[in-house]
Design brief:
The chain is 73% helix and 4% strand. The protein is mainly alpha-helical and 381 residues long. A four-stranded mixed sheet has the order 1-2-4-3. Strand 3 and strand 4 form a beta hairpin. Helix 11 packs antiparallel against helix 13. It is elongated. The structure holds zinc ion (ZN).
């Protein structure tokens, strides 16, 4: 009876989260569209960017205002989805002040990055009015690579505490496993994920020579050593296959598609309605709200492609992990345990998977592992 009710709870939780994610996408499109097409953006532009070539303090104030307003507009949904729902299902261990602290910290880190990116975008637009989107896509690749290097060093420690894994026997076992996979690690760390959530996770940190495995303390408490080996083998697979580099290269291609759509849509809107935001020139900062709508549109249209590729990579990592550990049963159980702890719906509706999920449905991942176990059994007869 408990098993059934747990599964029902998982289904209820993940369907709610999925609906909120889809609602968030629709809300972004709707609110940014309303902002532009109601004429509100035009009035804001007249006030904050009265001249055609504003100086940089004016430009930064303008970008920061738009970014701040859209952040505030998304805050109620973020609080409901990230705090209220997480508490309702017993997944969050945070109090309100800690959640607010995290949210403010993230915004404080992302705002200067956003300002720099927007300035870079318009500088590129003025220099290469036609080919700006190709230049931006080419720039995204090294930027993402640098960010992937800096994130674990500069940003992650501001949100969690990292220390060497206390269970040294397990650490040796995992080092042995990653050695066999051909991706030796400098150390195995544990991270205090339980200060925010009861959900479990594990990942490789750093893409240089000093790779580390990071295990959430929640994973250590909730999983057997065999299951943890399965989870780490999956992460090792991403390293062996160079999936990080694949993703970085893909982000360049993805950005190319996104910016091509943004270029085409924004130009058309600005030409058809030059009074809308007070310019028909894409390289004027006044075009930013129109580019925002176009970007939201391009995201909805192109994200499913990126997700499909991600699910393909995840399937391959599952296969590799099962073969590396040689223990498909433990792997299937690890997936089950992950589903229980993270309250994942094992069988989400197909359209939801296509639109939102970077991983294949858990039921599918478990079934593949069990198929492998069955093949092993046949091989042994
Ligand atoms: Zn993965």
């Amino acid at each position: 009876v408990t098993a059934i009710s747990n599964q029902e709870r998982a289904q209820e939780y993940s369907r709610l989260k999925d609906r909120l994610a889809l609602g968030g996408m629709a809300l972004t499109l709707l609110s940014s569209g309303t902002f532009v097409f109601s004429g509100m953006a035009g009035r804001v532009n007249k006030r904050l960017l009265p001249t055609a070539r504003p100086a940089w303090p004016q430009r930064l104030r303008y970008t920061a205002t738009l970014s701040g307003v859209s952040w505030l507009a998304g805050l109620p949904l973020a609080f409901f989805s990230g705090y209220v729902v997480e508490h309702r299902y017993g997944l969050s261990t945070q109090r309100v002040p800690a959640w607010v602290g995290d949210t403010l910290k993230s915004k404080a880190i992302s705002t200067p990055v956003e300002l720099a990116l927007v300035e870079g975008l318009y500088a590129t637009l003025r220099r290469w009015p036609r080919g700006w989107w190709l230049v931006c896509s080419a720039a995204v690749v090294p930027l993402t690579a640098v960010f992937a290097q800096l994130f674990p060093v500069l940003i992650a420690p501001r949100f969690n505490r990292y220390e060497p894994l206390r269970d040294r026997e397990l650490a040796d076992r995992l080092k042995n496993l990653t050695d066999r996979a051909g991706v030796p690690v400098a150390d195995v760390l544990q991270m205090d994920m339980s200060r925010r959530t009861t959900k479990a996770n594990a990942f490789f940190s750093g893409i240089g020579r000093t790779k580390r495995i990071v295990l959430a303390d929640t994973l250590l408490d909730g999983f057997t050593h065999e299951q943890i080996e399965g989870v780490v083998a999956h992460e090792a697979a991403h390293q062996v296959h160079g999936d990080i580099w694949r993703f970085i290269a893909l982000s360049g291609i993805f950005t190319m598609g996104m910016t091509a759509v943004v270029d085409a849509v924004s130009r058309r809107v600005l030409h058809a309605m030059p009074d809308l935001v007070g310019t028909d020139d894409l390289s004027s900062h006044r075009s930013l709200p129109v580019m925002g709508v176009a970007l939201a549109l391009a995201g909805v249209a192109l994200t499913p492609l990126q997700l499909a590729y991600s699910r393909h990579i995840e399937r391959r990592a599952d296969r590799f992990a099962v073969d590396l550990t040689g223990n498909p049963r433990a792997y299937a159980n690890a997936m089950r345990r992950l589903g229980e702890m993270n309250l994942s719906d094992p069988n989400p509706p197909r359209p939801v998977t296509l639109l939102l999920h970077s991983h294949p449905p858990l039921a599918e991942r478990i079934e593949r592992a069990e198929d492998r176990e069955y093949q092993q059994m046949l091989g042994n007869i």
